[in-house]
Write a structure and sequence with these properties.
Elements lengths: L3 E7 L23 E5 L11 H6 L4 E4 L11 H12 L2 H9 L1 E4 L3 H4 L11 H11 L16 E5 L6 E5 L10 E3 L2 E3 L9 H11 L6 E6 L17 H14 L4 E5 L5 E7 L6 E6 L17 E6 L4 E7 L6 E7 L6 E7 L1
Parallel strand pairs: 1-15, 2-3, 3-4, 6-9, 9-10, 10-12
Antiparallel strand pairs: 1-16, 2-14, 5-6, 7-8, 11-12, 11-13, 14-15
Length: 338
Amino acid sequence: MNRFIAVGLLGCTLLSACQSSRNTAQSTQKPVTTLAFGSCSDQKRPQPLWDDIVAQKPDVWVWLGDNIYGDSENMDTLKAKYNRQKSNPVYQQLRQSTSIIGVWDDHDYGVNDGGKEYPRRKESQQLMLDFLDVPASSPLRRQEGGYSAHVYGPKGQRVKVILLDARYFRDPLKKDGRANVPDPTGDMLGEAQWQWLERELTGSDADVHIIGSGVQVLPEEHPYEKWANFPTSRQRLLDLLAKTKPKGALFISGDRHMAEVSKVSIPGLGYDVFDITSSGLTHVSKPHEEPNRHRVGAMITQLNYGLITINWGQKPLTATVRINGDERATHLVQEIRF
């Protein structure tokens, strides 16, 4: 069946659909129609977007990293910052009405630009799981690394959200001054996570696959953190999609303090793959331009979150993906066809 997704970018909202898998607690079989996501939330700053996010009534909220700005090897410090974020009264409303899932990036992991060299990663992982209200009995508590899969809806109306941990096993960055230098021998995920990811994609009966990463997957030119700093890993990820051919796969990412949509064609897959970046729940970069040959539409530097809505009654399947902002927000609409 031909799959169709319409993608919209506005300065501050985005959404998608999901359900939990064997790596986390099972969720209801009821189809989800709305999923919201975002990243880069500084617990010390004003958090003006939660009211709008709650008003969207998302079935699922996905944290995509920098969920707090911890930056410490002191677990008491990280815990206190998580508690401050979690105590936000409007975010508490979201927790009461919405399934919360997520993964970390560097600042909530514990160190800026950090990878497997961070010495407190095991302890920090438990604090992240506490923040996400993962039960003490969950297999995620015993697993090394914060990756997980979440599946929602009955067969024929099923969405799988796969959240990748691009920190716990990632090799250290190579740098030239302040700029990152591509490392063809470096790895992003570690072999255990790679094997897990292939299992999750192989033979999956989901109709839509949302693959979340704290850092951008598709952009290649900018000098900051991205999968392209480890080009062999980036190519392995794209090749894995071509090999397993999941229905309706797209990436969602954070980290960059701006929002944009990127698109590539993967030989053998049969449809274009998008990377929808939503970053800046509490702060964003100053307006600027930067190269990204894969970008579709504008780059947005208003506070933003992501929203994907799916109309299961329409054939072919239609979803609308937005990044919404304030009244001054830029608007972009882009169609995705599978």
